[in-house]
Amino acid sequence: MKWPGGFIRWVFPEDDLVWFVQDLSLHILDIVENSLAAGARRVEIRIEEDLQKDRLTIEIMDDGCGMDEAMAKQALDPFFTTKTNGTGLGLSIVYQLVEKAGGGIEVGRSQTGIGTLFSLFFPPSPSFSLAK
């Protein structure tokens, strides 16, 4: 794949790559829906390659109501939710998917009334198979 600043080489079977990208894109849309439910008027998705850190980063930033420190620490925990009809599995499933790809997820800047930043990061050349 050609990204601004260089090439990213994904090393795993094409079927796994298609499944991974489709699944990841749906989870990113879930994060965007959470942002909108939190009152965001603006959501920005940024994809960036950092050759010095040897990683690909996807950032989802919003200007919604944000989270306090305690909520931000629990955001990735399974079954944690602030919604009356939520399961609390969305972000924890994203976390598992990203970890399976050799990456990680961080709840970056998040303050009540300011908005939230989620960062998903991946090694540019994962060499593994994603079992469905």
Describe this structure in words.
By secondary structure, the protein is α+β, with helices and mostly antiparallel strands. It has a single domain, classed as 2-Layer Sandwich (Heat Shock Protein 90), CATH 3.30.565. The chain has helices spanning 14-37, 69-74, 90-100; strands spanning 2-3, 6-7, 43-50, 55-62, 104-111, 115-122. A hairpin with a 3-residue loop joins strand 5 (104-111) and strand 6. The longest helix is centred in the first third of the chain and has 24 residues, at 14-37. The two termini are 23 Å apart. The model is unreliable at 127-132 (pLDDT under 50).
Q: What attributes characterize this protein structure?
A:
132 residues; alpha+beta; Heat Shock Protein 90; 4-stranded antiparallel β-sheet; two-stranded antiparallel sheet; 31% helix; disordered C terminus
CATH superfamily: Histidine kinase-like ATPase, C-terminal domain
CATH class categorisation: Alpha Beta
Strand count, sense and barrel status of the largest sheet are: 4 strands, antiparallel
- The ordered string of helix (H) and strand (E) elements is EEHEEHHEE
Number of domains: 1
Catalogue the unreliable spans. Answer: 127-132
Helical run tally: 3
Structural class given helices, strands, pairing? alpha+beta
- Overall radius of gyration: 15 Å
